[in-house]
Amino acid sequence: MIKKLCNALVAYVSMVIVTFSLLIAQANPTFLQNNLLSKRLFAYSLLNNFSNVIVGVLLILIGYQIKGNIKLIKKYIYIYVVNLLIFIGLFLWTRSFTIQNLYDAVLPITRNTYPVVLGVISALLIKDKLKNWFKKYKFSVILGGYAIVFTLPSIFNKDIFGLGNGNNIITAFSLVALGIACSNVKIDKLHIDKKVITLMSMGVILNVVLALSMPYISLKAHGDFSTAYRFNVLTSISVVVMAIVLFIVGQRLKIYVKTPEYIGLLVLLTYSNNFIIEKIVNGSISLKVLLFKSCIVSIIAVVLGWLLAKIDKREHILERKLSLNDGKTIVPWISETIMKIINYIKNHKHNLMNIVILYTLAYCSFIFMSPHFTSPHMDGDKYTSIFFFAFFVKQHMMILTLLLYYLIYRFFYGITNKFWLSSIITYTAVTIAIVADAIKIYYRSEPILPTEVTMVSAYGDILEMIPQIILWIAIIGIIILTGVIIFCEVKFPQEKLSWKPRLLGILLAIVVFGSSTRINHGNSIVNAWLSSYGNEPTFWNQEYGAQYNGAIQQFLNNIDTNIMENNSNYSRKRVNKLVEKYKKQAEKINKGRTNNLSTQTIVFNLSESLANPNRLKEVELSQNPLSYIDSVKRNTTSGLMISSGLGGGTANMEYMTLTGLPVSNFSPTIATPYTQVVPNSNQTLTINNYFKKSTAIHPYRGSFYSREVVYKKFGFQKFMYLGGKYKLKHKMKIGTNPYLSDETAYRNTLDVINSYKNGQFINLVTMQNHLPYSDYYDNSGDYQVSGDVDDGEKYNISNYSAGLSYTDKAVQKFIEQIDRINKPITLVFYGDHLPGIYSNIDGNSLEARETDYFIYSNKYARQHGAKNLKHVKYVSPIDFIALTAEQTNSKVSPYYALLTEIQKELPTIKVYAYNNGKNPVFVNKKGKTIKYKQLTKKQKRLYNDLKLVQYDLTAGNQYLYKTKFFIIKSVIL
Predict the structure, then answer these.
(1) CB distance 769 to 609 below 8 Å
(2) Given pLDDT bands bounded at 50, 70 and 90, which one contains residue 254?
(3) Whole-prediction pTM value?
(4) Which of 244, 316, 418, 916 is the most buried (most CB within 10 A)?
């Protein structure tokens, strides 16, 4: 009993050593990264060496002890299932994986996921043949052959025989085969003289010496540790010799360590599957934590191995299904299995054809989402055909689409229990959906959204709009399909399903499609799985989303849009009370103001990615690319805007500036209000609604962020963009930049300003400084970059700064031009976000969210009441409406009175801190973060009033539209 316990302890400690070594290598602690010799480094080198020796001994023992027969295929299947379960368990723990990890788990042979396990099984399947073959040669000759095979690569550091570092099929097969060769001889009775003992001792000593000395030799020879662990691999002759010596000594001393089959295979699974080790480490670098994890993993391996052994003894269904009989060898079994597969295909040809058709439809759901059959791309980017992109780049998303279509089919099959009826209904429904998506993308650059499907009340009106000929064709098509279904059900009847698979199909479909209500919840399993799998919702461009994910998945991506958390204080009475409160405030403000907003010409100018690089601590430029804009900022209302994005999120800034509603109050499921909030709202009030004429200008495509739809809903009379109904007259570019210049944008804006003599609103979104930042301009060399950034980053910053300099000149020219116009014009100029080119910047820091802004009123406006405001260092995008009204001395509505009070009394809202409006954070005038609990009672009331307004307008019953909350009274009573 004591001997068994000692043997078990030796085996367990060996498992811990192997696992511990693997975890340290994956964690890559500091002592492995710096080129310094240390005790820990030498200890790790020895540990790493011994772990490979242990694996070598294990492989030899497996070949020596485990019986080889056809039933090992069953064991490999068990290991396959266990690895899948481990993959799922590690995903649930870490909430991440890559699509390559998933492929590795599902297709281990073709992906070479755990080659050592496959090598072991392969050798054992032909153990009897190998044993008989080895009997032809003396044991010394066999050892000599192994010595040559492992010595030559070790000496010359060339992988002559394809052994690599040992984590492959060939090495595992070879060492198991060595164990099989050893089973032909009685190891405990081998004649071992002093010469042999001396050689064995020298081999062990050499291995230890190499393990300890190679880090020193590598550092002296190469200046680093590039060859420090050259002999610490399973294919090193020193490691193999030590493994053989330990094996022989163990047998001679009768230390019979019985190798449980499943425990041994699980150890080898851990050794060869890097995903398992990577996820177990999960960012840990503490050696104590890694040792603890090694102990836990080893215990789990023992328990799992014991469970698998118990199940193996009792479960025989798999053996019968696969015909795994003891007397059968591998070659006849393969032939028999091939015949079974052929027969299965013949017997299930209709089911397999159904899958092929669904896969074809899945492919169509990608390619027809691109009107021009090109992959998603920005102007100037490289692109390929959608056919290539879908099949080779998005194959995993096509498979997901196939599974979703198959679940729809199984749902119908479960209800009807009729194969042909279910199949044809599925084909028809999917085809109609694909065609509808393709048509909508062609005309409106976005696919069908859930909000449109749920508009049941509009179906009657839609049917009235459809020509009668189309309706008759549809009716005839339905009649033909009905006939086809009846014919197939009678002529080619399929086997009926029992209640269990029918119920399972229905439940699976409900669970999977029902889980779409959690897709956009950041902490949900569904969100983590789909994000890891490769789902890219791209709410900023729904057309791209359909091309990236397939139409059905993009549709599901848009279901989970809980706009705001329920407001317990929300009621019509509370809303009416708030209206009365701010009506009084508006009257108070309007007593001192003389102008009407509608008589002004207001230009909101979002300047793409504009933020002065000189403001960053990590960057120093040889000259200022925004010298004129900085001079304007010194003489007018100006400061820094806190952006909600970093490297993206343009439409969110637009939404906030036009509506006055902060995106941080929305649920985390709302990534882009333009595509997730606006479509759900019956009405959306924006600043342009106060003007008789309003125009949106964007010198690029109109499909991004669904601007065509959104601007129309916002009430803009015109939207000028490339390819739009209202043409851009000026279309100049600078250098090789693929985007239209800012000067062009301002020329088109001037045309609109001069085309109408009265007040109007213009929303201008420029495009010139959008990524990528290549060598477009001749003056890039004028902006030399220094600081803690690499050469690639300096290149991007220099090119980006050159683009900013052209924007600076364009702004100067535009301001000079509007100063010559005899009507009141106010320009609200702001950058939407920093470009995503700074690698060393903390994305949550304030400097990562600061962009430049100023509000400039032309000479005529200043002569007629407009005034510069006191320097406002920090603003959020929601403050521009209030600041504009104040600067132009314009009267306000009760709503704008609320925004005015918020701008004056409340610290600036950190709009990038998404938290459902709970525990919001703010920035004071000194740039310090202020928490909600630090606000005064008045400030808390103001914030909660805004939150109530936002809830009513976006998620509530929109009571405010039935009041006078948005009306500006021209006469104060």
Answers:
(1) yes
(2) low
(3) 0.74
(4) 244
